[in-house]
Design goal:
4-stranded antiparallel β-sheet; Beta-Lactamase; 163 residues; alpha+beta; 17% strand
Length: 163
């Protein structure tokens, strides 16, 4: 049995050892203002084509940064758009590409069993200089390729201000 003093000494040693090699790391994340603007632009793009969709932007941790639902969008579109964004962020690729890969590779097909993953087109990572800082997902158009076009429009709206 380990005594309380021994546990304290082990903990102090681990903390001290960890601090001796600590490094400062810069982490980029999508700003809320740009996330809101991107999702609004994507939903507006779909609405202009007659598609009632929802859109979600997640930050680099997969948490919702912005969410918008068009008038008359189906109730399922909110969760679908969030899951598409989460999946695109996690895999650092479009969900359309992931869908193609899961259809070609039986082992990759198991990815859909991961909580919140969805292999439907409409999710795109948001990247700056190769660093994935978030993702956008659109759900509700009559086809994942159409959701993806709207997501691309959302990213295009903010692309020049991503740093």
């Amino acid at each position: 049995m380990i005594s309380r003093v021994t546990c304290t000494l082990i903990f102090a040693t681990l903390v001290t050892a960890g601090n001796a090699h600590a490094q400062v790391r810069t982490v980029r994340d999508i700003p809320t203002a740009l996330a809101v603007e991107a999702v609004a632009a994507a939903v507006a793009d779909c609405s202009s084509k007659g598609y009632n969709v929802s859109g979600a932007v997640v930050d680099r941790a997969g948490q919702i940064k912005a969410l918008q639902r068009a008038d008359n969008a189906g109730p399922h579109t909110i969760d679908t758009s969030r899951r598409k964004a989460y999946t695109a962020l996690s895999m650092k690729t479009s969900t359309a590409r992931l869908m193609e890969n899961t259809q070609k590779n039986p082992a990759a097909a198991n990815l859909v069993y991961i909580n919140d993953f969805i292999a439907l087109g409409g999710g795109i990572p948001i990247q700056v200089e190769g660093d994935t800082i978030g993702a956008i997902g659109i759900g509700g158009a009559p086809g994942g390729h159409l959701d993806e076009q709207c997501a691309e429009a959302g990213i295009a709206k903010i692309k020049d201000r991503l740093k």
